[in-house]
Prior knowledge:
Blueprint: E1 14-20, H1 27-37, E2 43-47, H2 54-60, E3 64-67, H3 73-88, E4 92-95, H4 107-117, E5 121-125, H5 137-154, E6 166-169, H6 170-176, H7 185-195, E7 200-204, H8 219-251
Parallel strand pairs: 1-2, 1-4, 2-3, 5-7
Antiparallel strand pairs: 4-6, 5-6
Helix pairs in contact: 3-6, 5-7, 5-8, 7-8
Amino acid sequence: MIRAQSSPVSPDSLLVIVPAFNEVGAIADVVRAVNRSMPGIPVLVIDDCSLDDTIDAARGAGAEILPLPHHLGLGGCVQAGYKLAYSLGFQYVIRVDGDGQHDARDIPRILERLKTSGCEMVIGSRFVAKNGSRTGKARSLGILFFRLMLRPILGKPVYDPTSGFVGVNRNALAVFSRSFPLEYPEIEALVVLQRRRFRFEEVPVQMLPRLTGRSTITARVSLYYMVHVLLGVFVNILKYDRRFHRGKSASGPGAGD
Length: 257
């Protein structure tokens, strides 16, 4: 059972979270793969009100379960895992998707970069090392669009902005446990971190074929996705810039007179 970390908090405490919705065909293999790669590390499956036997399959494979009382979508599911990890005192959280596409053997590389770089987020990237990964045409166009859009905002390139294979440290957990993008969280989360002057890095990973099901990313969904995330990005920029200027005015000449 996942328990609160003893005080002082272990500098190496890690929780692997797996958001899942109707992943009965893949979730057990995902949990077992993580356990093989990271023996002794707790694996938490956050079940987003699945209609199949995802919970039983995950529990049978050795995972802890956080069953959500209502269907929250991906962002709400991930934030629930972040909130629990933060409240229990974990220093690092690595997210692995429940469809089997993330290779658990890459988890140690993500964790090592989190520990040694001092950055708040590490992204498992399909493209940073030109490792030959391929995606569908609609998804590829979306990734290219967001690369171009994010470059001037982040001040550095990001090669795989839609990757869900992500590790964060406790500083990022503190932020994300309070506020996290709900519907398409990966890109907006990068902007939230950047506005707080946090840093991210990418490490090369391999993506595996989906164990079950198929991607729901079609040309129509991609267009909706791009418009929705674009609006979310600019809302976050305006929100944090407003806070910055408000704080600057409060601390400027004449403040408190």
